[in-house]
Amino acid sequence: MKLKLLELTDDKARILFEGQGNTYINALAAELINDPGVDVAQRKQAFRFTDPELVVTTIGGRSPLLAVTDAAKRLSGYAGELLRQMDTLETA
User: Which pTM does this prediction carry?
Assistant: First the structure.
């Protein structure tokens, strides 16, 4: 996955996800909204076949890049837990 930082301020980040579909960015945006320090987490795409962009704005001094990093770590943890549970089902 290749990321390109398009804009960064104290409370806003725009990140382009080169070569990615919408599935991961949609999940990341949904997870970002669970963060009380995140005001907006939105996927944007200029045209159907262009790379998607994630726009994140934060409140209360929360760093937008830290918010994205934390949300990605939580998603990774959910996936790891799912894999552990699937392994348990296979051995049962």
Answer: 0.86
